[in-house]
Amino acid sequence: MLAFDKRADPTRSTLIFLASDSLRDLDSYFVAGWFWYAVLAAVLYGAHQIFTKLAADRIGEGLGGFVVEATAALSILAYLAFLWLASRWNQQSSIQGIFYSVLTGICVGAGTIAFFLLFQRGGPLSSVPAILAGGAAIMAVAGILFFREPPSWQRIVGIAFAVIGLLLLRK
Q1: What is the pLDDT of residues 152-163, one digit of tens each?
Q2: Which is it for the CA torsion 141, 160, 162, 33, positive or negative?
Q3: What is the torsional sign of CA 26, 30, 34, 35?
Q4: 20-29, 76-85, 89-98 — which is least confidently predicted?
Q5: Model pTM greater than 0.70?
Q6: What is the pLDDT of residues 59-91, one digit of tens each?
Q7: What are 100-142's pLDDT values in tens digits?
């Protein structure tokens, strides 16, 4: 388990936390080891949408999207530099991995612009969870169809609720 020194630089402490696997200890006691990373991702992506909503009326969608993605790239570069300097580098790659990462970047960039446009056109922040649930439904269907993940009644009901949530947003 990782202990934080209160006198330490909070940015460095966060990077050490993210670069370590300190949450693995909780795996067998409470939840799956990946669960806390999911919670962290949910909090960060929730904040991402709040800040996008705040920025949307103050910057154009293209420039805003670029600033968001450039800042994200710099944040990841800082993380990679930390891994390198801390001798924790374990970053492998392949042509396919790079290809799928580029496709991911295209989707993230276009999605960021879409959210800026949504907010600029008066879309409410409260609509974002249903929109993201629609993305979750797409991921669940892809998991079942293409990644051979077992379909359970809970997943099927979740997909149905996500689609219903999107339909409820029409007006």
Answers
A1: 998 899 889 888
A2: negative
A3: negative
A4: 20-29
A5: yes
A6: 999 999 999 999 999 999 999 999 999 999 999
A7: 999 999 999 999 999 999 999 999 998 888 888 889 889 989 9
User: Would the pLDDT of 1 be above 80?
Assistant: no
Q: What integer pLDDT is reported at residue 21 of this predicted model?
A: 57
Task: Determine how many CB atoms are found less than 10 A away from the CB of residue 43.
Answer: 10
Distances from the Cα of 58 to the Cαs of 13, 45, 48, 63, in angstroms?
Answer: 33, 20, 16, 11
Contact criterion met (CB below 8 Å) for 149 and 143: yes
Provide the CB-side half-sphere exposure for 44 (13 A, CA).
Answer: 8
Query: Which residues, at least 6 apart from 52, have a Cβ–Cβ distance to it below 8 Å?
Result: 64, 68, 112, 115, 116, 119
Q: Distance (Å, rounded) from C-alpha 167 to C-alpha 162?
A: 9
Residue corresponding to tokens 């969870």: 129
Domain-wise residue ranges, the chain: 10-93
Both tokens assigned to 128: 């974002």
Burial class (CB in 10 A: 0-12, 13-18, 19+), 18: middle
Distance, CA of 73 to CA of 65 (rounded, Å): 12
CA distances from 142 to 41, 130, 151, 159 (A): 21, 18, 11, 11
Give the torsion sign (CA, 114, 130, 125, 108): negative
